[in-house]
Design a protein that fits this description.
Elements: H1 5-36, H2 45-57, H3 63-70, E1 75-80, E2 90-92, H4 97-106, E3 112-117, H5 120-129, E4 140-145, E5 151-156, H6 160-165, H7 170-206, H8 220-266, H9 271-299, E6 305-308, H10 309-320, E7 325-328, E8 334-337, H11 339-357, E9 360-366, E10 370-377, H12 411-421, E11 425-430, E12 436-443
Parallel strand pairs: 7-9
Antiparallel strand pairs: 1-5, 2-3, 3-4, 4-5, 6-8, 9-10, 10-12, 11-12
Helix pairs in contact: 1-7, 2-4, 8-9, 9-12, 10-11, 11-12
């Protein structure tokens, strides 16, 4: 399916021109067929009658000049003493018998015979010797007996392009049409260019790049669209900034109260209650920090660079401090992302596996333009119906992944958002034999992407 707007416009214009030409050709063919009572581009009955009459009334000495005048690139007229004999090349055309009645009437009852040359294979062989005849097919021959006993032989030899386009200078028309089409394509591309720039700009924003106004250019409709988009992205930027500032202010105020609660908890005499209180306060602090991090991802500028994914994974493993992390990666995998954010995403995935299964396995699968970082575990897994929901903020899978494991419900959501802003994706899959497979897809770094 053609999805490009420019190509669709060109296709619509081309189809419109084709159908206009088809209708015009059909109109000409139908009306000419009505006159000749055949589907061939034969001369009109009155034209043939006039030709016969001229040949009969012209003085004998003027006949050579008259025949030269009658012979054109599409019509050949000859005057013979006897009718041409039948041959395999020229055969009678039964389907033109009905058409002959019009010619007989126009010539006042003269005996007329119509033949057609069907020797296509012979025509191809002829074209090999003389390329100029390559498009000459199916000539029509009329044989008319004159009053003096001689025979006028009239051949109509219309080349294939003339049959299709109805004109002798068809190659020139094709060349001019091609030039006009090329010019039209260039003009259409010029008009579509602002829309293409807007599309690339929208995709860049979706990949995490900073909101920047786009220059208004192109037609009036294109300028109005770009202006509306600039106003929209400005409004969205203000809303995102306001949301982040609001959350930051709330987090700051809550942080103050959490610090006070922590100090009070330190003075609790019951050690068990003190430990539980401090753990709850720590978890609340983590939830606040993760919420701010998730909100800031949409606001911050996403200037991705070439990053060694292997180093990121090793750094994440060091942060988790678990001996049960098996890493099987090449020494260097160059991807496009922000190192600090990618480290956060990988850490969340590996930590999630260790937290719920006690161990994690990390490997990679490299495709042409992407690399899949795969983090697997043998834990309880996530039901298939809940895997997409598990990537949403604050969603917790019942029973197997509750608060008892210490999660905040934001780790996978943050990793998913970072993957999307890096131009990749995060998907959760079941693992044969039990467990969960997290597939983090990232763009490979290439020199052209730098």
């Amino acid at each position: 399916m053609i999805t490009s707007l420019g190509l669709r416009i060109v296709l619509i214009a081309a189809l419109a021109m084709f159908f206009v030409q088809l209708l015009a050709s059909t109109y000409i063919v139908v009306h000419r067929s009505a006159d000749t009572r055949s589907g061939f581009r034969a001369p009109l009955p009155d034209q043939l009658a006039a030709t016969v009459e001229l040949l009969e009334i012209a003085p004998e000495k003027e006949l050579p000049r008259l025949l030269r005048a009658m012979n054109t690139a599409t019509t050949r007229v000859a005057l013979l003493e006897a009718a041409p004999p039948e041959s395999p090349e020229w055969v009678e055309a039964p389907f033109m018998r009905r058409a002959l009645s019009a010619y007989i009437d126009a010539t006042q009852g003269r005996r007329i015979e119509a033949r057609v040359n069907w020797s296509i294979l012979d025509q191809f062989e002829k074209a090999l010797d003389d390329p100029s005849t390559a498009f000459d097919f199916w000539p029509v021959r009329f044989i008319v007996e004159l009053s003096d006993g001689r025979f006028a032989v009239i051949d109509t030899n219309i080349d294939l392009l003339s049959r299709i386009l109805g004109m002798r200078f068809a190659p020139g028309v094709i060349a001019v049409t091609t030039l006009i089409t090329i010019l039209a394509v260039l003009l259409i591309r010029r008009e579509i260019r602002p829309i293409d720039k807007l599309t690339r700009h929208v995709r860049a924003i979706a990949s995490g790049h900073k909101f920047e106004p786009l220059r208004e250019e192109g037609s009036g409709d294109a300028k109005s669209l770009i202006a509306a988009f600039n106003a929209l992205q400005k409004r969205v930027a203000i809303l995102l900034e306001g949301r982040t500032q609001l959350l930051a202010g709330v987090a700051h105020d809550f942080g103050t109260y959490l610090t006070r609660l922590r100090l009070r908890a330190e003075h609790m005499t019951d050690e068990t209650q003190r430990t539980k209180a401090i753990a709850d306060i720590t978890e609340m602090r983590t939830i606040l920090d993760d919420t701010i991090t998730l909100a800031a991802l949409d606001r911050d500028r996403w200037d991705d660079t070439a990053t060694n994914l292997t180093d990121i994974v090793l750094s994440a493993a060091e942060r988790i401090h678990s001996p049960q992390i098996a890493i099987d990666l090449p020494d260097r995998i160059e991807v496009r992302s922000v190192p600090a954010q990618l480290t956060r995403a990988v850490t969340n995935l590996v930590k999630n596996a260790v937290m719920h299964a006690g161990a994690a396995e990390v490997r990679s699968e490299i495709a042409e333009d992407f690399v899949d970082l795969i983090v697997e575990d043998r834990g309880p897994g996530i039901p298939e119906a809940e895997r997409d929901l598990a990537l949403q903020p604050f969603y917790r899978v019942d029973k197997s992944r509750g608060r008892d494991t210490g999660g905040t419900g934001l780790g996978l959501a943050i990793a998913n958002q970072i993957a999307a802003l890096s131009g990749g994706s995060l998907t959760l899959e079941g693992r044969e034999g039990g467990g969960l497979r997290a597939r983090l897809r990232l763009r490979l770094h290439t020199p052209s992407a730098a």
